[in-house]
Amino acid sequence: MKVRIFDTTLRDGEQTPGIALTPEQKLAIAQKLDELGVDAIEAGFPIISDGEKKAVKDIAHANLKAEICGLARTEKKDIDAAVAAGLKYIHTFIATSDIHLKYKLNLTREQAVAKAIEAVEYAKSLGLQVEFSAEDATRTDREFLKKVFKSVTEAGADRIDIPDTVGYSTPQYIAEITKDAIDATHLPVSVHCHNDFGLAVANAISAVQAGAQCAHVTINGIGERAGNASLEEFVMALQCLQFDKKFETNINTKLLYETSRYVSKIVGVQVQPNKAIVGENAFGHESGIHTHGVLNNPLTYEPISPELVGRTRWFQVGKHAGAHGIAAMLEEYGIQPSRDQTREILERVKKLGDLGKHVTDVELLSISGEVMHQEGLKRLVHITGFSVSTGIGNMPYAFVKLNIEGKDFIGTDYGVGPVDASINAIQKITGETSKVRIKEYKLDSISGGSEALCEVTIKVEDAYGNQASAKSIGEDIVITSVQAMIDGLNRIMLKKILKQKNLGH
Predict the structure, then answer these.
(1) In a domain, 337, yes or no
(2) Residue where a domain stops, chosen among 267, 292, 314
(3) CA–CA gap between residue 202 and residue 209 (Å, rounded)
(4) Which of 116, 64, 57, 113 is nearest to 87 (CA)?
């Protein structure tokens, strides 16, 4: 069975507190969603602002493969705004639960039904495709919900949507009302699930199993409060888990991680590390038992191949690590310690872990160099001097002194801020000496308050296209950024030197 993917990242996803997208950003995301293979894109809510209307219009005229939809209340002015934006498909809604009718709309049940019928008939008279949502459906009286759906069907609705507006449903209940909707309308049924109790994806899957043909989802599960059903989780669950029938989507799953990162960067909402499918830790392993199993057969501790969603697995050294994981990580650099040497390296790593220290690849190589008495396996780049000045009216300025493979280099530069100035000064040195440049910089806050910790992730690239990433955590943004940059430089330069040595052998 083919399941339709209706993406509402640009509408419900943008309702995430703190997110506000320009028309240009919305169009760029829509193009990414189209490449991903979504069937429908809810481009926005045209009535709310001129910028929103422009964004929807731009997307509607972008010649995308996906159907382009806009949100409209059961008001003629909302529907007219959608038409003015160039839409031929609207998603119109009115609340149907007693709590919404009484405290939000101040309408009787009969008045709500009348407004729903009027809106659907008006939209159909304009030649629009209409998807109707009964907002807060899962808290609506079940018999009344069936009456609403039957009424809008008779008015000409093309599709019915069941919103679990506050994430209140259970998989069992949403399956029951999905069957109600199908029996009452004989139309294609969608579900729009929120994640307030962490059940959005489970509820969407249950509804599909009960006969729903479509799910409203967002990239990374962003949206109001706790968010929406996550597109990547929903799609991969349908594709990979065991069901009574086979489900398929039009999604190119190899683009899931890339799309997730792209959206995360534009909207400014970090993906939690342990998030399924697209979180940084989703295919990461540290435990010795797990690493050993994955190296023998990835299916032991990975339900799917990371490549299926555009990822690669990675191993972390730490106090939970085992000899097999250490050996596998060193093998990436062409280093093969003896069994005794591996054991000693592991012991040193565990001691650092017990002290609460995070062991980077560069530090692992340095430890290995000491144990194996190989001078080449050590930090090649050291920061020996650093200062930065900034203030009101003065352009931030940084001075950096690096020691690269025993030679001292000095770099100075300006920037829009102290971090930018510091990175620019380092790049001025490494661009000339090592042909390494920064490709990506990401800053995240990982704790609150005036003493918040920040996390800086940097990706660097050399002249041959080789890339390496490094991450640093600290209280000072500037120092943490510089440390991440130095770690990235060490990692990529060590990789290059070790590759050259191995090719020479």
Answers:
(1) yes
(2) 267
(3) 11
(4) 57
Is pLDDT above 90 for 410? yes
CA distance 325 to 246: 36
What pLDDT is attached to residue 419?
A: 87
Q: For residue 288, give the CATH number of its domain.
A: 1.10.238
Residues 249, 329 share a domain: no
Residue 277 belongs to a domain: no
Helix, strand and coil content of the chain, in percent to the nearest 5, comes to 45, 20, 30
E strands in 129-196: 129-135, 159-164, 189-193
Least confident piece of the model among 75-84, 283-292, 419-428, 445-454: 283-292
**Sheet order of strands, 454-462 included:** 436-445, 454-462, 467-474
Residues 320, 395 share a domain: no
**What six digits make up the tokens of 33?**
């969603």
In this predicted model, what pLDDT tens digit does every residue of 202-217 receive, in sequence order?
999 999 999 999 999 9
One domain, residues 164 and 259? yes
- The answer to whether the Cα torsion of 317, 321, 325, 331 is positive or negative is positive
Q: pLDDT tens digits, residue range 246-279? A: 999 999 999 999 999 999 989 989 888 889 999 8
Q: What are the counts of helices (DSSP H) followed by strands (DSSP E) for the chain?
A: 16, 16
What pLDDT score was predicted for residue 500? Answer: 63
Whether residue 367 is found in the same domain as residue 385:
no
What is each CA distance from 52 to 49, 68, 218, in whole angstroms?
5, 14, 18
Verify that 227 and 296 share a domain, yes or no: no
Bridge partners of residue 4, in order along the sequence = 214
Number of domains present in the structure of the chain: 3
C-beta of residue 24 within 8 angstroms of C-beta of residue 35: no
Residue 276 lies in a domain: no
- In one-letter notation, the amino acid at residue 364 is L
Entry field: residues in the chain = 505
At residue 93 the predicted structure's pLDDT band, cuts being 50, 70 and 90, is: very high
Which residue, of 235, 267, 299, is where some domain finishes? 267
d(CA 57, CA 382): 53
Domain containing 480 equals 381-504
CA distance 82 to 130: 12
| In-domain check, residue 459 | yes
